[in-house]
Design a protein that fits this description.
Strand order of the largest sheet: 1-2-7-5-6
Number of strands: 7
CATH architecture: 2-Layer Sandwich
Radius of gyration: 15 Å
Order of helices and strands: HEEEEHEHEE
Helix content: 25-40%
CATH class: Alpha Beta
Shape: globular
CATH superfamily: RutC-like
Number of domains: 1
Strand content: 25-35%
Largest sheet: 5 strands, mixed
């Protein structure tokens, strides 16, 4: 994988970066401070619409939610790309995933693996990161999953 740009790697995976999802409140998609870029929480928007809604372990299955977490990560990468260019990323530092969870659902780590696995596919060893996977009652717009990233650029 060395030498291959991150954008080329995405293409090899059959993926392309979506348009940056416009913020739904008073914030920006990503900010840079020093060598770090922090993304805002990204929802599983695809083609301008929420890909699925509801709580995981309720109307949304864990398998569906894992795919949605992958979509969230792709949206986060789009925000990074728009700010600094994806190919400037030298490592993924941290992933925080929020999972709207039905009562009794405790599979948040498996859901957020959707985001983590995508980052590993794109960045290889540099995609290994620290992470939190948090269960919450509800997310904005009734999204099942929300993912934010911290990446280092160089």
């Amino acid at each position: 994988m060395s030498g291959m740009s991150h954008l080329a790697r995405l293409s090899d995976l059959g993926l392309e970066l979506p348009s940056v999802v416009p913020p739904v409140a008073a914030y920006v998609p990503a900010v840079q401070t020093g060598s770090l870029v922090y993304t805002s929480g990204q929802l599983p928007m695809a083609g301008g619409e929420m890909a699925n809604v509801g709580q995981v372990g309720g109307p949304v299955t864990p398998e569906q939610a894992k795919e949605l977490a992958r979509t969230c990560a792709l949206n986060a990468l789009a925000a990074v790309d728009a700010l600094v260019g994806l190919d400037s990323v030298t490592r993924v530092v941290k992933v925080v995933g929020f999972v709207a969870s039905a009562p009794g659902f405790t599979g948040q780590p498996g859901v957020v693996n959707g985001a983590s696995e995508l980052l590993g596919e794109v960045f290889g060893e540099a995609g290994r990161h620290a992470r939190s996977a948090v269960g919450v009652t509800a997310l904005p717009l009734d999204a099942p999953v929300e993912v934010e990233l911290i990446v280092e650029i160089g």
